[in-house]
Structure formats: structure tokens, C-alpha cells
Batch of 3 targets.
Target 1
Amino acid sequence: MLDHYRTQLTRIPFAVAALASLVVLFTPESGVPTAPPGTDKVVHFVLFAALAATGRIAGFPTARLLPGLVAYAAASEVLQGLLPLGRSCDVVDGIVDVVGAVAGWSVVAAARRINGASSR
């Protein structure tokens, strides 16, 4: 029974990251703070790295997590261009999203390998 609650608790960080991504990706341009050039790429990378890392920790299967994040990256960019947010669709942002997702997934995978090797 405790395993059920432990599993549910590992999903809370993913839910927080997902909600944060909705706010960050779909805030109208008027609500986006000004920042130095390239800052948006860093935000995209970190956001998708967080989604992938927390998703992996939550136990979502890689076969669904990574393709889902790629689809989310593409859809969010298309929607930014279509919705009346004053934002634009940027293919480079989508690529940075995917690279961030792979990086976040890889960090958790590497940490698990290291922890598994050190516990032997």
C-alpha cells in the first residue's frame, strides 16, 4: 500500500513541471519579461529537461515519455504561432525543447547507473 502512495508522490514534481510549462509556453507576449537574447532558448531547454527528468523519476515509460515530449514541443510551437498570444512559432525553440528532453532523461539515467554501481 505504501508503494502506491510513493508512486503517486513521485508524480507531483512532473505535474508541477507540466503546469509551469503551460504558463511559460502560453503566456501572452505582453506578459513575457524582457531578457537578453538567447534567454528563451535556455528557458526552453531547462523546461523540457525538467519535464523529462521528473517524468522519468515518476516512472513514465521512455517509449511514451520522450515521444510525448517531442509531440508537446511541436504542438506548443505551432500553437504559439496560431493562438492570439503575440508569440511566434520558432523551429529552433522546438529543437531546443527536444534536446532538453533528451538531456533531462539522460541525467536521470546516468544518476541511476551511478547509484546502482555504488550500491553494489
Target 2
Amino acid sequence: MSLLPPDAVEFIGFVAPHRVSEIHPAPGEAIEPDYLRLLAQAHEWGGFDRVLVAFYATAPDALLLAAQVASVTERIGLMIAHRTGFTAPTVAARQFATLDRLTGGRVAIHAISGGDDRELARDGDHLTKDVRYARTGEFLDVLRLSWTSDRPFDYAGDHYRIEGGFSEVKPVDAIPVYFGGASPAALAVAGRHADTYALWGETQAQVRELIGRVRAAATAHGRAPRFSLSVRPILAETEERAWARAEAILARTRQVRAAAGLGPAAAPQNEGSRRLLAAAAAGARLDKRLYTAIAAETGASGSSTALVGTPEQVAEALLDYHDLGVRTFLIRGFDPLEDAIQYGRELLPAFRDLLARRDGKARAA
């Protein structure tokens, strides 16, 4: 898999090594191989283009999980979250290039700098957020040099000094770099490095505004990134039942948090969560079918807003974001395996059919 054409639509799912979500407490085992296999294969069978393998402090290693996903699938791409700065960029470059070669070019990297000082401290990282983003920029500089340079290179930055760096193993093609972050420090890195800029499920007005800022930052470097939207579809056969399911998920989320002894969510440190909470403050139901109540309940710790309705209605809502410039949709459910199967059977075909019919009308006109 190489870099996608600007207008190509991409669907990315989410795989975890065990069943867990806001409504499903984590089991005792950190890794359940059979569940990981089923979840990965459900996405491949459902027609997803990639799956995200997430990173967070205390989690199993994302690169090794991605290798396992590749071993039980045939074609689906891997979007591997990588916390920049913990592994030397030359070493990380060889790791990603090696896996890309072994999987026939299925690898992408989601470069994350970390937005919560408390989580970073668990791995002994105490840099400020702005400094972490500056380090990420240098990390990605070295990563690309390692992947592309046909001779040893030197690099001198504030965080990395490389002398005679070189990688014998190169990717099959250019490894796509996904990147998110809405602070000024993050946008400076996004403009230089993001092949696809990742947004969470914000309102249409918020998405329009942030896309404009990212495009301005990228234009300064002669670049034109793609845009991704991360959202949690809640589907049912009727709109009424879909909203009832959404309210049931909210109630179950509250039960799980109470059973775990979790009080009100702490104020987030990252700009993305703050933007989701700003949307939630405007109402629980926004635009056509954006549902923000679960984000408000959890402190917007990650992708936590939903699109609610029938598959056709949610497909129409995704098309509204497509009209704003979004071409990648990162979707996952609150019932991870069951929802992935339903998305593959109903939502992805509904969106693709809707887009094809609209494009056909435009060509005819």
C-alpha cells in the first residue's frame, strides 16, 4: 500500500488484543489471541482498508500486535500508533520498514506525541507538550531520511544527532504518516509531515475550521495532506431504535465507570479533547446526528463522539464530512467485534453506494 490519491476514500477500523470499550471493562488477560484474530478478520472480510493498532502507556506493544494481525489476514493495511521519542528514530525506521517488507507494503505509522503529561510520566517522559511535538518533528525527519536515503546521512537537531545513519531495509513504497493534534505546536509538525491529518468526530463547523488551519500550515511547505475523521457510529434498523441504543450505551458507560470507582473525568490536557468537550457543551445532539453525551461523560478521552441512525442516515452524515474534505473515516464501535461486522455489512456499502450515485449524477450533469 502506497500513499493514496487525494480523492480516494479509505475506511480504517480498530483492533485491540481483547474486548474492551466504554461499556465493556477490560478482561483480566492483556492479550486474547483468538479475539484479536477474529476482530482483524472481521475488518478484512467487511472491506475495511486498514485497522488501527493503538498505543497507550501500559498497553501491549503495538508493533508486535500489528505483526500478529498481519499473520492472520491477507490484505488489510496496518495503521500502527507509535509514541515518538521512546525509540531512536533510526531504530524505529528499520522496525517499520522490516514489517512493511514482510507484509508486502501494508504498513502505515500514526505518529503520536502524547497529550497528557500524566500518561507520559508512566514511561518516564517529562518533557512539556510543545517540546514533545518539536521532538516528533525531528523524529519524522530522521524516519524519512532512513527510509529514502541511498547513502549514509547526518542529522543535527535539538533532540537527535545522527552520524552516518543508514538503513539497509527500505519500505516497499512510501510508508504513509498519519498525524493528529490541534495545538499550534502540533499544527507546525502536521504542516511538514502529515500525509493524512487525523481529526476526531467534531461538528462540521469545527472540522471546516481545523481543516483550513492545517491546509494553511501545509501550504507553507508545498504539501497537501489528506484528512481523516474518527467517530463511533451507532446503528439500528430505525432512527428511533438507534437513538435508544445510544442512550443505553451512555447509561452503561456510567455504570461501568461507577463500578470502577471513577468519579467525574479530569479536565483534559490535550487540545483535541478540549475541542470535543466544547462541542458537547453546545448540546448532546448536534448537526444532523452527532452525539456528544458519551464524550462529555468520559472527559473526551479519545474518540468518543458518535453518529447515530440507520446505516443510510449515518452514511449521509459521513458524506457531509466528505464534502468538507475528509477522505478517511476511522470508525469503531462500542461493541467492537459485533459493530465491525455490522459496519462491513451495512455502513460501508451504504456510504460507497451513496457516493457512487452522487458522483454519477454529477458526471451526468
Target 3
Amino acid sequence: MTAHQHGHHENPPADTDPARFWDERYSQSDRIWSGRVNPVLAEVAADLSPGTVLDLGSGEGGDAIWLAARGWRVTAVDVSSVALDRLAAEAERAGVAERITTLRHDVTQGFPPGRFDLVSAQFFQSPLVLPREKVLPPAAAAVAPGGRLLVVEHGAPPPWSGLDPDDPRFATPEEILAAVDLDADGWEIERLGAAHRTATHDGHTGELVDHVVLVRRR
């Protein structure tokens, strides 16, 4: 489910099966993502005591393995069995497999059970239809008392993409927060805004913008 897509590919038909789409996407190469932890997640988790974490759209496991290596007990969820197989193999190599549970699940069709100290939704933008208002409220419901929900999305297309910076698929932090549909009395907003980082792609270096929502259940 993880989607660091930037719109390079035409969007598939609306009735495309997500599991088949992502299995085929992952099968096109030995590795799709960098294998590194997403930087905002690393920054947030560094200040927290390790506990239980739900990693939504875990992909090949860059975040899950990083968290497990720091003592978190990770439930890694993805719609692609190909991605989860890679995650499990990487977790074995990293010596953290006993702290990671993989779960193949389409979160648009339901949500895994349990309550977690941290629920992480990193870069859920997708070539497929993936409505925030359907996925993010159950993600918040999975947060234990005192726990946190972290949502990070691309805030703008990368400078090398050729896409319009005002493309409506890039929601503002406030729009992302609104889609979570929180009970204001039960939550504290800890972070709402943009984070900037430098990245390189095919020899081009530019600044990327991430939109960040971090909320804590009271």
C-alpha cells in the first residue's frame, strides 16, 4: 500500500484490484523503495519510548525494520504479499524478525484489530483510489490512550516530476487533519505543517516537501 508514486504513470482504471496492482508493481524490480526509514517518522519516534506500532502501507519494510531495531513491536500491514515477503526476508537479515508481525490487508476494505502506541501512515498517495476519509478515521481509532497517529504525505510534486505544484492530489496538512475526523476534546495536535528535505533522483537534486500531521490521544 505504501505509495511513493509521484504521478509518473497514468492512473489505472478505478476497478483495478489493489493487491494485483501492487504485486505486479513490486515484481517489476528487486527493490522499489530505498530501504531507509522515512525521516519524519525517525524524528518523531526518536522522542518516544518504544511500544507497539502499526505500520500502514509498510512496503518492503524500511520503517518497520528501523522501528524494530529500536525496540518497537511492529505490526506491518500491506496489500502486497510480494512486498511483505521482502520485508520478512529483510527483517530476518537484520535480526529483528521476532519483533515484526506482517499482515496482508486492504485497509480500504476493513482494518486490522488492536490498539497501538503509534500508528504510522507514510505517503499514502497512490495511483489507485485511496480515500483519506475512509482510511484515516480507523487509523485514529487504532491508537491507544496516550498514543499517537502520524500521517506524512507528499506536500508537492518533486521538482523533477514535471507536475503542477498546485496539483490537487497534494492535500494541505489541514485537509489531511480534517479527513481524520477527530473528536477535538479527545486529541492533542502536536505537529501540523510542512517538513522539507533534500533528495536526489537520476542526478537531479531538489527540495521535497512533506505534509505532517501528528496527533496524540489524550
